Amino acid sequence: MSNDSTTDRPSPLHEQHVALGAALTGFGGWQMPLRYDSDIAEHRAVREAAGLFDLSHMGEIEVSGPQAAAALDYALVGNLSAVKTGRARYTMICAEDGSVLDDLVVYRLDNEHFVVVANASNVEVVLTALTERVEGFDAVVVDRSEETALVAVQGPRAEEIVTSITAAADVPTVREMPYYASARATVAGATVLLARTGYTGEDGFELFVPVEQAAEVWAALLEAGQPFGLVPAGLSARDSLRLEAGMPLYGHELDTTTTPYEAGLGRVVKLEKTDDAGAPLPFVGRDALESRRQSAPARVLVGLRGTARRPARAGYDVVLPGAGTVIGSVTSGAPSPTLGHPIAMAYVTPEFSAEGTELAVDVRGRQEPFVVAPLRAYVRPTS
Length: 383
What we know:
The chain is α+β, with helices and mostly antiparallel strands. It is built from nine helices and 20 strands. Helix 2 crosses helix 8 (235-244).
C-alpha cells in the first residue's frame, strides 16, 4: 500500500469515508480507507459481529454471448462452463508460461452472462487479456467497473443485517443462498447483484451496486448494522482477516513469477477440461501448467506461526535457526488479533515445508522463531 493517495482515484464512497474520519491510502490506483479508528477493533468486529467494507477498487468485467462459457474456458484455467447459473468460481488467468496474471472470482448470472471480478491493480491487464482471448468466440467483453460500486458486509451477523433492509420477497433467497452463489435482490431500494462471497474467512455478502446508488446503500447498511455491532472497516483489517484465513493476495503470494502450483492452488487448474468430443480442451497456459504439475516444486507456500512476539513482514528472509541460511521469503505477515500471536505466509524450499518444522525469520537482524503451520490459521466456528 502506498501512503501517497493524492494521485489516486477516489471511490464512489469517498465523501462517506471522509465524513467517517477514515485514514486514506493509495491502493491499486485508488484512494481507499486504510482504517476508520482502530485496525484491531475493526478486525475483531468482523470476527464477532460484522464489518462494512468498500471494495469499489475491484474491477467488474462482463463476458456475455452464446459462447461466453467456452471463451472463458479458453481464457482462464478453470472449467467455467461447468459453473451453474447463480453460482461463482474462484479461478485464475495465467500467461502462456503458466504464471499468474491475476486471481479472480467469476459469477455466472445466466447461461450466456458472466461477471469476472479482478483485483484493482490488474483490471487493465485482465481486460486486455480477456478481450484478446475471446477473439474467435461469439462473445463480448465489456468493462463495467466505472458504473459499479462494490460493498461487503462480513461477519457472523451479516445475514441479519442484510436481510433487515432487503425487500421482503427477496429475503428467503438471501437466507437460503449458499456460499459462492449470487442473485439479484432489492437492498435499501436498489437492485443489486448480491453474492455470498468474501475475503475474511467469515460468512458475509458482497453487493454489486450501481454507482449512483452506492452512497444510499452504504448509509442504509451502516445504520441497519449498528444494533448488531457492525463498524466500517478498512484495508488494514481486510488484510489481517484474509491472512488469518489463509487467502492469497495478488502481489504477495501470487504474481507473474508464480504458478498456481507453488501457491498450493493447483486445484483451480482444470487440466481435465475436455471439449464435446472428449478431447483435451486447450486453454492459455495449459502446456506449461501440465509440465509444472509433473515436476518437483522449487518452492512451496506455507503458513508460519510465531512463537515469540515480533511479527514477520513481507520481504523478510526465512532462515534456518542458528545457522541463518536463507531458505525462503515471507510474502505476508502480521500479528493475529484473533489468535494472539504472529502469523505469516512464506515461500520456502520443499525440504523445510512440513508442518511443525522449526524455522526463523530475520526481523531486522534478529532471528525470531516460527513454526511451519497450516496456511489457514483461523477457521470460522461452525455453530
